[in-house]
């Protein structure tokens, strides 16, 4: 049993905000402002209220709070693979900020039984839903969320808030570095289809850099993974084998994320190819494990935890202000070069 508070609910009446106000010698409005973070309260009064809350073992009634405000104080996050540390880091940032502001966070694994899970999402009547899926959602599902007043994040350019990571400069910096190291035949393993790759700023930057630098412009070097039931590492492992069997001349490889890069490195090793001596490998997301792989993984980085905090802040601020406070949350990615990057094998 959790022992942080008195759990004998039958022996004590429920503590109300009025009780806290009387004990702390402040108004009920001041108590509400402290608990809801809805207005600036002098620090000495804020600490006095929080001290009284703790002494009286006050627990907020979120059901009553939600009914009064028509806001469930509940943020959902839709993901397709929790095995990817990238999602864990972003969700951690969302949860940190949300909890500080009286919200709870739920994760929805939308990797199977989609109809039932989408129904479950609708039944929660979420305050906000953050999307990290790559597949399309039914229009009826999105209509229900909009009618419920759920704030949508990452559901397209015309749907609420969008978290945007600009990878273009990092992709081009890597391409210039690879060119300097003698690479001309560069592949790409992408989690998605061709239209999505062309819409992704990573894909556009890759095409532009190939042309600008005079790299081999062979689209057969780009492999797409459309099987959302497979984890990224499996797609990386299987795709790299298909690519290298068909095009053994490839000497460097971009991967859609770091987990796909891990799978690709294992696939290369099983084919008798060394990283980076035979093939250089570059991931994306710079998960915390990247520097501990052997060889350490070159990647493209941005502050994932801060991204999560800013997403949560944008949702909560928009709800409070009753208008979207920040429609695009922008992050600049950077290249992080490690041991998986090396000279082209024909120069060794």
Automatic annotation (TrEMBL):
Source organism, top-level taxon: Bacteria
User: Looking at the keywords, is Translocase present?
Assistant: no
Q: Name one GO molecular function term.
A: transcription cis-regulatory region binding
Keyword Ribonucleoprotein recorded? no
Q: Which UniProt keywords apply?
A: DNA-binding, Transcription, Transcription regulation
Domain (HTH lacI-type) spans: 15-69
InterPro entries cross-referenced by the UniProt entry? HTH_LacI, LacI/GalR-like_sensor, Lambda_DNA-bd_dom_sf, Peripla_BP_I
Which residue stretches, if any, does this entry annotate as coiled coil?
none
The protein depicted here goes by the name LacI family transcriptional regulator
């Amino acid at each position: 049993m959790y022992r942080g508070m008195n759990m004998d609910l039958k022996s004590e009446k429920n503590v109300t905000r009025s009780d806290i106000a009387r004990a702390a010698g402040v108004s009920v409005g001041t108590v509400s402002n402290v608990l809801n973070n809805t207005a600036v309260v002098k620090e000495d009064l804020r600490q006095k209220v929080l001290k009284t809350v703790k002494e009286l073992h006050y627990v907020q009634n979120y059901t009553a709070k939600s009914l009064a405000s028509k806001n469930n104080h509940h943020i959902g996050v839709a993901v397709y693979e929790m095995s990817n540390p990238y999602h864990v880091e972003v969700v951690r940032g969302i949860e940190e900020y949300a909890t500080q502001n009286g919200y709870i966070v739920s994760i929805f694994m939308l990797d199977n039984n989609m109809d039932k899970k989408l129904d479950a999402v609708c039944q929660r009547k979420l305050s906000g839903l953050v999307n990290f899926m790559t597949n399309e959602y039914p229009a009826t599902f999105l209509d229900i969320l909009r009618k419920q007043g759920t704030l949508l994040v990452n559901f397209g350019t015309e749907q609420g808030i969008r978290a945007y990571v600009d990878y273009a400069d990092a992709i081009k910096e890597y391409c210039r570095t690879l060119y300097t190291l003698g690479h001309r035949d560069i592949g790409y393993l992408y989690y998605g289809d061709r239209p999505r790759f062309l819409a992704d700023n990573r894909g556009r930057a890759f095409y532009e850099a190939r042309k600008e630098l005079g790299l081999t412009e062979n689209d057969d070097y780009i492999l797409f993974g459309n099987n959302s039931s497979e984890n990224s590492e499996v797609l990386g492992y299987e795709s790299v084998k298909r690519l290298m069997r068909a095009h053994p001349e490839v000497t460097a490889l971009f991967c859609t994320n770091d987990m796909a890069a891990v799978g690709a490195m294992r696939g290369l090793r099983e084919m008798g190819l060394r990283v980076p001596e035979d093939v250089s490998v570059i991931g994306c997301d710079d998960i915390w494990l990247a520097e501990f792989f052997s060889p350490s993984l070159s990647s493209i980085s941005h502050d994932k935890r801060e991204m999560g905090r800013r997403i949560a802040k944008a949702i909560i601020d928009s709800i409070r202000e009753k208008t979207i406070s920040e429609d695009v949350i922008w992050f600049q990615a950077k290249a992080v070069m490690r041991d998986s990057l090396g000279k082209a094998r024909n120069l060794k």
